[in-house]
Write a structure and sequence with these properties.
The structure is a single chain. By secondary structure, the chain is mainly alpha-helical.
């Protein structure tokens, strides 16, 4: 009798794989780690992808708590752009879940 491949894997490992198993998300995390806070447009330009692709992945990363979003602070109040920041502690925790879950 066969079981589903992931049936015996820890939930924490499966969650980490779901988040980090997408190359675009890893690229976003790496870029934010090195460059600091960025807008969606800046990320898209830096990574050479469409803003929509970045947006979809930002939503997943934000829901997982890996990044946070906040408005840019403009003194004139005329701009309403959002910048994204990496939450290093959460990213490191996710990395540790992956390493632990793989038994490394």
């Amino acid at each position: 009798m066969s079981t589903a491949l992931g049936a015996n894997l820890p939930v924490e490992l499966l969650d980490a794989i779901a988040i980090l198993g997408v190359p675009a998300r890893v690229a976003i995390i790496r870029h934010l780690a090195s460059a600091g806070a960025q807008t969606r447009g800046q990320l898209a330009e830096s990574l050479g992808v469409q803003p929509g692709t970045v947006q979809k992945n930002l939503e997943v990363l934000r829901a997982a708590g890996v990044i946070v979003a906040g408005p840019l602070d403009y003194s004139d109040g005329a701009h309403h752009r959002i910048e994204y920041r990496l939450v290093r502690s959460v990213a490191q925790e996710m990395q540790q879940r992956l390493v632990s879950g793989l038994g490394l």
